[in-house]
Amino acid sequence: MSALAQPLAANLVQSVDWLAIAPPTLTAVVALAVLVADLFVPEARKPLLGWVSIAGLAAAAALLLPLLDHDRSTFCLNGSTRACSYTADRFTLVVQFLVLGGALLAALLSVTTLKDDNRRYPQGEFWFLLLSSAAGAALLPASRDLATLIVALEVASLPAFALVGIRHGDAKSSEAALKFFLSSVTATAVSLLGISFVYATTGSLYLTQVADRIQHVDDQLHTLAQTGVVLTLVGFAFKTAAVPFHFWVPDTYVGAPLPIAAYLSVVGKAVGFSGLILVTVVAFPSYADVWGPALAALAALTMTVGNVAALRQQATRAYSAVRLLAWSSVGQAGYLLVPIAAAGYAKDAQKAIGSTVAYALMYAAVNLGAFAVAALVGRTKELNRISDYRGLYARNPLTALLLAFFLLCLAGLPPGIIGLFAKVTVFSAAVDAGLGWLAVVMAVNVVIALFYYLQWTALLFRAPEGEPAEHRLPAPLTAALALTGVLGVVLSGAPQLVLRFAATGLF
Prior knowledge:
The structure is a single chain. By secondary structure, the chain is an all-alpha fold. It is built from 20 helices and two strands. It folds into two domains: about 20-285; about 285-505, no CATH class. Helix content is about 70%, strand content about 0%. The protein has a two-stranded antiparallel sheet with strand order 1-2. α3 runs antiparallel to α4 and α6 packs antiparallel against α11.
């Protein structure tokens, strides 16, 4: 080989940091292993696939521990750590912990669901799709170029469409999957159009290079660059269920199997918000005067529409508890948008982003706990209406107390100190950024949300109508409730741990 060819070959052949990419890689490998094993495992032993999947998710989460010492990057351009496709920094690890932990808890809920109704669920395909989606979701926060970002987004989303509609013979499930698919495809198309405009004006897909070059585009390309930024943000707004791009959420959550609704409410949001953070504060910081006000307006609109719609669910006893949680998740998305909007105004954008991540961690724990209780009630009450929770304390005191605790955390009331702490953190981010009006809107929405959370909580302790159904706790459901309950209680005792853990290293 000539002396001239040697440096060229060195640039083309990249070394791979296998430890850095281990969490999403292991998740994907286990997904393939489960799919192949499904061909050979007898029907009676198919439940073992679920436990293998849970073990795989737990092992992938454990692989995050060796990465805590320092940042690691791989798939870099010409050996430079400034332009890499994959970076395992503090932000990446925290979001991957959230994604894998949320997928693990959703898997625990799924074990019971598949056991109760195994004829309507193809188990091998179910676990393959769940693990594949989790692998894509774990890849996304580590993505540092726009192409990898979109690929990770689609790997997380495409299996989720199938999971929503995987229940055989259920027209509502199929309809929910179709709505979810159409809205997500639209979002992806809009994002891809925006990214193509950004690439045309900057000549790069790496987020750090885009951030540098987009500030110095030719005047003739300035409008194209602005359009690309706006379209990219609109695409991610669909993924975060921000109003007015939220229309798919209620029907999708109600039509999906309940563990998948829980998965979408936490992992789906983590995917959307981590992608939104990367494209705003990493790729487009120079356009903060564009996306800052836009996200502030979206945050105000999202939290208001979500909470008002959730409040309306209480007007009738026939409404589903899952639909109420769906509208509640839209309102919570508004709170999550506040610190990202504040990052466009604040001097310390990293602190503002840390507030979003901290709130997401709190929300994940208590919302999955609420879905776990909903899964328990849904075993005997298929419609899972709000009225079905009346008198839950009379039959299952501990479960009722846990649900009350989760709802108080979501409302931000003691003893749910972690919920109050998270809301104060987000409120402070808005005030520090000079967004006093947004802080006022948030305060009003917190009061609105108090009503429907407290009304549901009070229903748990009212006298039951007739003989209440007995709710037996299967082991996987017990584990999910125990994990979320312990996490919520511990963090309520030491809420500062969340903010320290969520401190990001994006810059």
